[in-house]
């Protein structure tokens, strides 16, 4: 691409289907090639559907029924939430990109199942290439990184926990075997936090067989019996590992603690600072507390772009801290949940990155240092559902379900069925990402330019909102492209402000003019941030939660001046109506 910047409008259908005739011809071309492909293959086979059959009255009647039902469905869908319009600023979805739609559709017709190359000869390769593109975007070495597409961010987060647990379980099994054989006490924290090279070294030095390791694994064996052995060998009751997740976490992390059988007790929320981001002192304290309790840290999670307000945790500072632990031999798994903010990495390395605050910028740049990362192409990637992605920095970190150590070359490395939590997986999402990468490219001048536009839209909207209504109290800082605000008079109590905000939100719900969403922050996690927010209007904190109206800016057409000029005054007018 020689163009310095992208014409974003060419990559979306347009709110009035402006690009319809071009898109229709592309869909038609995709269909025609698919028809031709079928005709050309096995061209000498007889046709079971000759013309006289296809034109028979029975045949035509069946077609008529199908056509009616198709019309019925499409008419039904006309009642669907209109998420394509810039008036939709509710949840993390908007207009789909044209390459994503075409990539998805073209692949859907071939229906590949990426679980195995046996049924996805081409699609499996497309997935590899698409994963390499995303790896490059987040700063991983595309040649070393591995990963796959998932049904969404939740499953990608589960994949991270699965890998972290795989490594920890192996290391702890080895530590236990060595302690039992040598009679020296087991230090579960030190053992659980070895890395693979130390693991191989020790396994070889002590000549521990795979059978022995298997018998000491709490994933393969009886976890209660293994726990008793660990307690015995360490001279201390074994209480299992903990999962450290910032208090801004997505619900998927609690689900993970639940599903992986850690017990919700093992899910330790890390306190947030006044900006709503993971607090480093709190993280330090949590790690120290876990270790002094004799409990290893299964993984530290940081979030790049929270679901509530788009905040970006200080991923760089977390990496620095974990590097210090690494110096003393403690390798703590670090997973970045970048389901929302991961695509903002496309801005890095160009002028566009200036749109990000310095902190957010260095946090996004540090994702490359983490063991694994979750992305959600079906959010800021403008790709159809369901499409999440899980990536790891290197091959060792990808190891899972097979018990064999990662240095043993896996026989079917080309097949993903044993590397994924999910079984059958559509190749459509991978292809949608692939075609996006081939056209928009995930670099700063093109895809990154669209991301920068979403941040510009957020800035425009929050300023216009603040200047347009004296009751608007913006939640600050906003690290990405989400605007959250409450509605308060000076001196209001938090409960008065909450009631007014909730009332205004309730007014928006049946209002077809705009779709917004609502979020409620709990003082339990967001105490400092809520305090700062309420102090901003000389208010009084008398409630345990903060109610906010939330507007998500991902629609590329919010950048358009005419749209802004038409929509902003209308939004302010609707807000005014709904407040009263
Ligand atoms: C959306 C989101 C998830 C979950 O992703 P799904 O695709 O809905 O499963 C996880 N973490 C964060 C930060 C998210 O924004």
From TrEMBL:
Domain of life per record: Bacteria
CC cofactor: pyridoxal 5'-phosphate
Keywords associated with the record: Lyase, Pyridoxal phosphate
PROSITE patterns assigned to the protein according to its UniProt record, in alphabetical order: DDC_GAD_HDC_YDC (PS00392)
Entry annotated with the keyword Lyase: yes
Gene3D superfamilies reported for this sequence: Type I PLP-dependent aspartate aminotransferase-like (Major domain) (3.40.640.10)
Family under the similarity heading: Belongs to the group II decarboxylase family.
Descriptive protein name: Pyridoxal-dependent decarboxylase
